[in-house]
Amino acid sequence: MFYSSVFWLAFNFGIHIVMVNLVIGLAVLVPLLKYLGMKRNDQLTVNMARRLMKYYAVTYGVAGVFGTAFTVFLFSYYPFMTLFIGTVNIVPFAIAIAMVALNFFSLIAYWYGWDRWSPRTHNFIGFLMGASALLIPFGFRQVFAFLNEPVGLRFTPTGSVTLNVAQAYTNPTFWPLYISSIVGALTATMIAIMAGFAIAYVRNPEAERSYFEAAVRKFFIPSLVGLLLMVPLMFSYLMSLTGVPYKFNNIMVGFGVTIGGDASYNFTWIFVLHLALVAIQFIALLYIAYAAFKGNLVTRSTALWSIVGGASALGTIEAGEMLNAFAQFPNFIASLNATQALSYPKPWNVILTNYNNLTNYNTLAAASFGQFFTSFMMAVMIIVTIAFIYVVFFKRPR
Amino acid sequence: MSIVGIGMHWGILQYVLGLPFMAFIAELIYFKTKDPDWMRIAKVLVKGTAIVFAVGAATGTLVEFGLITVWPRVLTAVGKWLYFPMYAEVFAFIMEVLVIYMLWYGWDRLSPKARLVLTFFAFVGPWYSGAMIVGANAYMQVPTGLMPDYNATTGQWLYAEGYPKLILAIPNNIASLLNITTLQSLHVQIMDATSNAVIAAVPITIVDRLVYESFAGYTLNQSILKLVLKQGALSDPGLAAVPVLNVLNSIMDATVEHYNIYLYLFKSPDFAPSVMHSIGAGLTVSGFTAMAGFGTRLMKVKDRRYKEYLLKAFKFSVIFSLIIIIYQGLVAGHEMGVTVAHYQPEKFAAFEGLGVPGFTSIAEIFHTEPIEKLLAYGTLSAHLPNYGELMKYYSGWGNLSSTLGVPGTSTYLPPLIVDYAYYAMVILGIALGLYALILTGYIAAHRADRIHKFWMYLLVPAAVLAQLASYMGWAAREMGRLPWVVYGVMTLSDTVTVNQPPAWGEALFSLFYLVIGAALIYAVYKFLWVPGRREVLDEVSY
Predict the structure, then answer these.
(1) Chain A residue with minimal CA distance to B217?
(2) H-run or E-run covering B404
(3) Which of A268-277, A364-373, B76-85, B147-156 has the lowest mean pLDDT?
(4) Do B23 and B114 sit in the same domain of this protein?
(5) What are the tens digits of pLDDT across the range A208-229?
(6) Count of CB atoms situated within 10 Å of the CB of A255
(7) What does the alpha-carbon distance between residue B252 and residue B249 come to, in Å, rounded to a whole number?
(8) In the prediction, which pLDDT does B2 show?
(9) Considering the domain boundaries, does residue A42 fall inside one?
């Protein structure tokens, strides 16, 4: 059955999360490149950092746009679960908010202040930019872990609800999720950077050759290491989900593996897709290694394989996030069943019994004109986004 | 924390409402005159917009998360019943982000006509976005279907008759369970009926109580509703265990559908005046700030060509500011005041602060009562709501019925400080209007480059005072609604999170906002003010 509420959440989240991964990766890599370039007196690396900074700023903007849209859809379609999640997770949200703001300001200061701050100040701002980006998911991934299993949830005798934050961060799903998010973001970004310079090289081989070569030389080994690390990290997160059988079963049922009962849905195909995309990245990197071994590092074919690798890296993020989200469908909190929800004190028993369910959406928000309006405006938004990217990156100055 | 956060956001976003509109006018003048200075003026204003917007968007995102975490019940209500303006707003926000940055980053790649089109959307986007957000705030001031509680002709408060009331649609399946006689004794008026609901004016004490019970997890057998159910209705255990939240959802869903899902919020009488007044505030603050920026630079400029350019920009911002402040005071402000007087008499009483022992209100000092009567009600024979009189009612008002022993809202008195906030706004507005008039006089006399230094030194204070006037208006508007968050529906205690952040957390976040504000000021100085010191005119492509 088609649920427009689920579709719009998935659509916005799907775009948002890919952009966010690039934001995290670029926030770390851009200041690092600039620092290394300055230290080694390597102007090409500094130029590379500056070019990537512009992409970072635009990626941040697009991520913010779709993230805001996601939030509005969330509280419009699911106001009561937003109430519960917002009330309980005030600290993880506060961490994420503070880091989003810090990242934004360091981005602005770093971008506008390029060549205007002293090198030391600029590097310090770059450090803040990278550190804040790495800490944004420290807040948000805790909320995701809570939605796997509400570890740290506390009810007071007065009917208040709170989160034992220290205990919440011992959630078995948090650390595997957080660490794989960070490693995944850095790895995907490095592969995407190689792909980006590969596209530029294919379009303009003369001018871009040195950039493409530098990108591959700098990021090939770190991205291969990252990709190798992602395999055990991915399985570590999967194993942590054995404590959330509902979700684990929906992921693994296609392989004939379930824990304590049947699966409700079969999302194994997304997992297979995810693995296939990881495999394509390995193949792309191995081809580039083979070409380099043969002394043909910068060729059209290595560029094309870089592009394939980059597209696969972004696809891997998308598939992984969709798998993680859909595997708990239709539950907001994957591990929470109706019996547990009823045992909670009021009003949370009422709210969670009724609304821990993505199929129980706000019908007012799903009314027909609203759907038409949303679809129309979303189409306009995508067109304007494309125009924005064209004007900023491709249109030549007059 | 919310005052600091939303206040900071409001202070910043006013420039996003005003600067692109000024840029649009400058570009129109460019098309008329073909004078490249007007394109330069537009470019500076767009640059200012881009810098300020970045900070505005960041603080807006913080405010959004603040609503989720600190005011989750308000956000729940907004998401559930007022979702459409929020939907519409998000697209407006997206339009702002993309268009403003496309305009700024693409400035040298776009033709003047393309710039004009984008600048048009660069101010329409924030106006549209602002209208949606202010729409939600307008509903919080005067919910759609509100029947006010004061008769200005007689000077009587109508609490004894159950006012203020809210017109709601009660679905037939709920209405069929209710005892009409008991409802009428509680001042519920049956007004109409549709095919699936009964339209009734319900005292807000009942509405507020139901909202409280809903969020506190009450069931029907624990609710005040059991008092108005037909005899024996609760003998059905299934019905007795129904959460009040489900009943409230049904009533509010039916009410929203009755008024129209998409127009429900826009039918608040406060919507149009609030939007007019808010945009007017943004334009006023932007005008006076631009005036201060261009004028202050004009005082020190040496290069002749640069001076010519600055003089045009200065004259433009002076005349713009004068026109806008006249509009803001005589049109938008007047409409806003009339709406407050009619629909929020308690707030109006606090504005005037009349008849309070030991308190001297501004209205009493300046004897403005006749003017207020005439402006608010159109007649000198009207009676202004008297705060001192109002105080007498609050010991008993709020209890649905003492015999039923039902607790309600125990007090509803807006703080008297709004009297000072309101009159500070009015007095500052008049002073700024006179100041803009004096400067316009110099321009009319072709003496714009020879304005007396005294007036020029007042440029920066005037910009600060324009912000202060706006803040005072905002404070009067928001504090005058207390203790309600949504008038007649939710009080502060109904809405704030049950999981209060610690004091150090609030202090830290407030400090964070202040640092953001300081960073913005520094960014404007570093990236807008300092480059202008070179007195080099930007190249303009045609």
Answers:
(1) A347
(2) none
(3) B76-85
(4) yes
(5) 999 999 999 999 999 999 999 9
(6) 10
(7) 5
(8) 61
(9) yes
Element (H, E) at B478: helix B459-479
Domain end position, chosen among B219, B237, B263:
B263
Tokens of A181: 């998010």
Does the CB of B516 have a partner CB in chain A at under 8 Å? yes
CB A110 within 8 A of CB A31: yes
| Distance between CA atoms of residues B11 and B13, nearest Å | 6
Cβ contact, residue pair B497, A89, below 8 Å: no
Query: How many angstroms away from the CA of A396 is the closest CA of chain B?
Result: 6
Nearest CA in chain A to B519: A105
Give the domain range for residue B317.
Answer: 2-144+268-353+416-532
Q: B214, B245, B263: which is the final residue of a domain?
A: B263
Task: Give the chain A residue whose CA is nearest to the CA of B264.
Answer: A364
Give exposure, B284-318, as e/b (b: 16+ Cβ within 10 Å): bbbbbbbbbbbbbbbeebeeeebbebbbbbbbbbb
Min Cα–Cα distance to chain A from B539, Å: 12
Q: Hey, are the CB atoms on A64 and B61 less than 8 Å from each other?
A: yes
The ipTM estimated for the assembled molecules is 0.71
Contact A278, A232 (CB under 8 A): no
Helix (H, G, I), strand (E, B) or coil at B197: strand
Q: Does an H or E element contain B385, and which?
A: none
**Pick from A35-49, A148-162, B31-45, B171-185: least confident:** A148-162
In terms of Cα–Cα distance, which of B44, B93, B128, B118 is closest to A391? Answer: B118
Q: How confident is the model at residue B401 (pLDDT cuts 50, 70, 90)?
A: very low
B216–A346: do the CB atoms touch at under 8 Å? yes
Interface contact flag, B106 A395, Cβ < 8 Å: yes
A220 and A149 in a common domain = no
Taking CB atoms and an 8 Å cutoff, what residues of chain A touch B95? 381, 384
Residue B157 to residue A8: CA distance in whole angstroms: 48
Q: Are residues B343 and B449 in the same domain?
A: yes
**Angstroms from B363 CA to nearest CA on chain A:** 43
Task: Tell me the shortest Cα–Cα distance from A112 to chain B, in angstroms.
Answer: 8
Query: Which residues, in sequence order, are CB contacts of B523 under 8 Å at separation 6+?
Result: A108, A109, A112, B51, B55
| A–B CB contacts, 8 A cutoff, strictly below | 201
Q: Within 13 A of B399's CA, how many CA atoms are on the CB side? A: 10
Residue B243 phi/psi, 5-degree rounding, is -65, 140
Q: Mutate which of B65, B73, B118 to disrupt the A interface (most A C-beta within 10 Å)?
A: B65
Give A354's contacts in chain B (Cβ within 8 Å): 243, 245-246
- Residue A32: domain span: 1-171
Strands B165-171, B197-203: pairing kind: antiparallel
Which one is predicted more confidently, A382 or B143? Answer: B143
Contacting residues for B541 by C-beta, under 8 A, at least 6 apart: A398, B108
The token pair that represents B50 in the structure block: 């881009």
Put simply, the answer to whether B88 touches A397 (Cβ < 8 Å) is no
If one counts the domains in chain B, the total is 2
Is residue A351 domain-resident?
Answer: no
B213 assigned to some structural domain? yes
Q: Which residues pair with B200 in a beta bridge?
A: B168, B190
pLDDT tens profile A256-287: 999 988 899 999 999 999 999 999 999 999 99
Q: Within this chain, do residues B132 and B154 fall inside the same structural domain, yes or no?
A: no
- DSSP code, position A154: E
* Residue B407 in this model has a pLDDT that exceeds 50: no
Cα end-to-end distance, chain A, whole Å: 51
pLDDT score recorded for residue B406: 44
Q: Which one of A117, A150, A171 terminates a domain?
A: A171
pLDDT reported for residue B498: 57
Residue A232 forms contact with B (CB below 8 Å): no
